[in-house]
């Protein structure tokens, strides 16, 4: 397989941070972000190499972080990243199973310019991380697959961040029997700002939840659920809309308003 010139350059720089004098001083912010993503993806955050990464790449200029399926991303790494003074606009941490509330608190507590926050498949995320999410410009929150995130955390986040337009809670199983309480709080807190809500999981929305959505969320364009809604539930929504199209699949259904 032939590698691109970009990939070759990234790998060369990423593997030689320790031997290039003051390399971080000459790198543009976007190049630092790409190098971090490459290093994480290739599991290069070893104890021996991590000090070179933090010294050369962790800087106040960082705006985007994308960490994908790396067990070397720990609370300690996120704490160091938060301590570098970066003002992040986009954070994606996906499938990094060593991350807990402690690390997310350390990273997010001063991120008031955050627009996109994607925390996917983080099994140790529960409640406390939500205390740190307070951005007046947050638009996109994706918690899909965070099986232990609880209702108080979600309710706190939407109350503190009323600018969220996309909210994805697919397969957040711990919400379970509290899903309707959560959905009603989302509808009341996000109101007309909400455009996309996905609550796919092993539960069904109640009439009260759909009534809350249709009453408060007049700009909602998509509502994702796991199973086909009972007719009475769909009618609760249709009472407040001019047109509803229901698209049902074997494992999920999507109401389009």
From TrEMBL:
Species of origin: Branchiostoma floridae
Residues passing through the membrane, by range: none
Lineage: Eukaryota, Metazoa, Chordata, Cephalochordata, Leptocardii
InterPro entries for the chain: Leu-rich_rpt_Cys-con_subtyp, LRR_dom_sf
Highest taxon, organism lineage: Eukaryota
Gene3D superfamilies assigned: Ribonuclease Inhibitor (3.80.10.10)
Name recorded for this polypeptide: F-box/LRR-repeat protein fbxl-1-like
């Amino acid at each position: 397989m032939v590698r691109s010139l970009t990939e070759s350059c990234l790998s060369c720089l990423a593997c030689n941070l320790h031997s290039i004098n003051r390399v971080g001083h000459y790198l543009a912010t976007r190049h630092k972000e790409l190098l971090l993503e490459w290093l994480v993806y290739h599991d290069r955050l070893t104890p021996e190499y991590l000090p070179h990464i933090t010294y050369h790449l962790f800087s106040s200029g960082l705006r985007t972080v994308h960490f994908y399926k790396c067990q070397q991303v720990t609370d300690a790494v996120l704490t160091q990243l938060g301590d570098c003074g970066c003002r992040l606009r986009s954070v994606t941490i996906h499938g990094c199973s060593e991350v807990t509330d402690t690390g997310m608190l350390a990273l997010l507590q001063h991120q008031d310019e955050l627009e996109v926050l994607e925390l996917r498949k983080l099994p140790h995320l529960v409640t406390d991380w939500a205390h740190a999410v307070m951005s007046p410009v947050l638009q996109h929150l994706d918690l899909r697959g965070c099986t232990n995130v609880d209702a108080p955390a979600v309710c706190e986040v939407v109350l503190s961040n009323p600018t969220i337009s996309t909210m994805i809670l697919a397969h957040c199983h711990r919400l379970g029997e509290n899903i309707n309480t959560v959905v009603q709080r989302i509808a009341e807190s996000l109101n007309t700002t909400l455009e996309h809500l996905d609550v796919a999981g092993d539960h069904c929305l109640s009439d009260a939840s759909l009534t809350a959505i249709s009453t408060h969320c007049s700009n909602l364009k998509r509502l994702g659920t796991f199973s086909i809604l009972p007719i009475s539930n769909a009618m609760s929504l249709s009472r407040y809309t001019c047109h509803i199209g229901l698209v049902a699949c074997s494992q999920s259904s999507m109401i389009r308003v």
